[in-house]
Protein: Ring-1,2-phenylacetyl-CoA epoxidase subunit PaaA
Organism: Kibdelosporangium banguiense
Amino acid sequence: MDLEQHFDATIARDQRIEPRDWMPEGYRKTMIRQVAQHAHSEIIGMQPEGDWITRAPSLRRKAVLLAKVQDEAGHGLYLYSAAETLGADRTDLTERLIEGRQKYSSIFNYPTLTFADVGVIGWLVDGAAICNQVPLCRSSYGPYARAMIRICKEESFHQRQGYELLMTMMSGTQAQRDMVQDATNRWWWPSLMMFGPPDAESANTAQSMAWKIKRHTNDELRQRFVDMSVPQAEKLGVTLPDPELKWNAERGHHDFGEIDWVHFKQVVSGNGPCNAIRVSRRRKAHEDGEWVREAAAAYAAKRKEAAA
Ligand SMILES: [Fe+2]
Ligand SMILES: [Fe+2]
C-alpha cells in the first residue's frame, strides 16, 4: 500500500517514475506496449524512405536521406533500451514484431512512389510525429521522457529537410510540382490517422492520461497538427486534399472532413498496401543478422572471462 501511495504521489507531483521504483503492473504493461510499438515504428519507418537512398537525385540529397534514415535506427535503439529498463526482453520484442503479434504505426504501410514522397514524409509524417512526441518529453516514465528529448530534436531536423526538399521541387518544373501535389494527396489522410482513433473510441486514452503517460488526447493533437499544416501548405503552394477544410473563427481552429476509419482499421489489422513486405523485410534482416548477434555475444563472453 505504501508503495502504491508513493507511486500515486510521484505522479501527482509531476515527478518521474524511474526503473528502480515500484509501479502497478498495468502501468508497466502499458509502458512496455507503448515504448515497444514506438521502437518498432522507428525501425520499420526506415523502409519507405530507405527505398530512395540508391535513387536520390543528387549526392547532397543522398547524404541527407542517409543521415535521416540512420537517425530513425538510433531512435529505435534508444527506445528498445527504454523498454528493457521496464524488464522487457529485446529478442522477445523483435519476435513479436516479425511474427505480427505487436503493432507499429500504420503510416509505414504505404509505398513511396516518387522522390516527392521523401519530402512529404519529412513534412507531414515527421511533423505529425513531432506533435505526438513533444508532449511525451514530459511523460511520467523517466527513461522514455528523456529518450524523447533527443528524438524530438532530430525529428525537427527531419521535418525541415522534408519541407526544404519540397520548396526546392515547387520552384522547379510543372512535373515536379505535380509530383509534390500527388504525394501530398496520398499522405495527408494517413498522417491524420497517425494520432490514433477518435477520443470517444480510444480505449487506452483515459488511463494513460491519468498516469500522465499521455498529456493530450488524440483529437487535441490531431487538431494541433491540422492547424499547423494549413499555413505550411499555403506557403508551399499545395492544396490539402480535403474540400471541408476551413477556418472556423468561432472555435479558433480549422474544421476538417471525416476520416475514413474503416480504411484505417484495415491497414492496422495487416491489410494495408505494404504490411506484408515491411514485416518480411524486417524478418529477413533479423535472420541475416544472426551471425552478428552470435559474434557479439561470443565477444562479450570472452571479455567477461578476461576481466574475471
Ligand atoms: Fe524517428
Ligand atoms: Fe523522423
Observations:
- The two ends are 42 Å apart (CA to CA).
